[in-house]
Design a protein that fits this description.
2 copies of one chain form a homodimer.
Chain A (H helix, E strand, L loop, with lengths): L2 H10 L4 H9 L2 E5 L3 E4 L7 E7 L2 E6 L5 E7 L4 E2 L2 H6 L6 E4 L3 E7 H10 L1 H25 L4 H11 L1 H6 L2 H8 L3 H9 L2
Antiparallel strand pairs in A: 1-8, 2-7, 3-6, 3-8, 4-5, 4-7
Helix pairs in contact in A: 4-5, 8-9
The structure holds a DNA duplex (30 and 30 nucleotides).
DNA sequence: CAAAAAAGTTGCCCTATGTCAACGTTTTTT
DNA sequence: AAAAAACGTTGACATAGGGCAACTTTTTTG
């Protein structure tokens, strides 16, 4: 149940086994369904999630009803509605599992308790932030000035998992193009 | 010379005056010209900058020669080519001052020394990261699905400073629209 | 396993926005 | 102060890609 999380933590930090056990003891398990919402736009996000199995999507719904995918996280990764988690304001974005998933989660209270008492955990958090920042930045700015074809080529190169595991519709909304355009582009390579 | 930095640090952290003096003692001052490059695309970023006066722009130049503005930082803020600063890889982006500016800067070595020895500074860094993440996210995702007019309205609402202090050309490249389009949109409010 | 729902594909048309160029204005340089 | 360069504005034109709809294929559900 906690093996994957332990493995990941061991890889990312240098904690002894006791500390490791202590950390994971704060996590609880939850099984979720395809398309199950974890956090709604109005809610304040209270948990940090770790994906044992499945996939989490972060998205928004615009006034005209279109949904925009912001981020996908797969197995062995952490995910949450970070701005809301940090500032405890309404998320203004949705968190959902797009497949039946097995997640571990830790409450915000416990999370910050660990950050404030375990330097190794604080360091892990810093790394998560640094990484998240870099990835978000690469992804977003990577697209600047790209046309539809270039975006698709970019995604194939940098996140091939996405095209394999996620519906066209969601990939399209992630790339900021329409589903039809994505379909057309893919048919021409 | 260090008053502004001290003021900002005092507001953001709860350090005693001695620690404060110690922190600022690692910073050096530099005066730069309009359009002076601080970090080139090929360089590895070695400094974290604090803006006493002026404005820093982060941008890239695409293969076809267009420049894309990623970020503007004004007085009383920190700025650097963060991914490069963190990972010590070539920046793949440029850092420049777009007006004559007065900057304070701290070397990466000293910066991480402070992060690793002063918990208050570590906390400050965490806050900078959290904030940077949230702002970048808001800005980027804020634009998703916006047309040119909506982007301009967004910028007027959220970063009015930009339109006042930065050339149309740079604002346009920040918004991901052409200078002509920006000009046309502005003329219709 | 059948029916229903969702997702993907493709054609047609249309609009927002890019490109280019000409021109006027402002800023920079010397 | 004059010359040069950069910037902003506007018109004419071209086009990528969105919206919609009809149809097919895949997935989900009972």
């Amino acid at each position: 149940m906690f093996e994957i999380l332990e493995k990941v933590l061991k890889k990312k930090t240098d904690v002894d086994d006791n500390t490791l056990k202590k950390i994971v003891s704060y996590f609880k398990i939850i099984h979720t369904k395809r398309n199950q919402i974890l956090v709604t736009s109005e809610e304040i996000c209270q948990n940090y999630y770790f994906i044992n199995k499945g996939c989490i999507r972060l998205f928004t719904i615009s006034k005209d009803g279109n949904d925009n995918s912001r981020f996908f996280a797969f197995e062995e990764n952490f995910a949450t509605a970070l701005p809301s988690f940090i500032d405890q304001k309404p998320a203004e974005e949705y968190l959902q599992t797009i497949q039946d998933s097995e997640l571990l989660y830790i409450s915000r209270t416990d999370f910050y308790h660990l950050v404030n008492t375990l330097p190794q955990f604080a360091k892990l958090y810093t790394e998560i932030l640094e990484n998240g920042f870099i990835i978000a930045q690469k992804r977003i700015y990577g697209f600047q000035g790209f046309d539809a074809k270039e975006k698709v080529e970019w995604i194939i190169k940098h996140q091939p998992k996405l095209l394999l595991n996620v519906s066209n519709k969601m990939v399209a909304s992630y790339l900021g193009i329409s589903a039809s355009t994505l379909s057309r582009v893919k048919s021409k390579l």
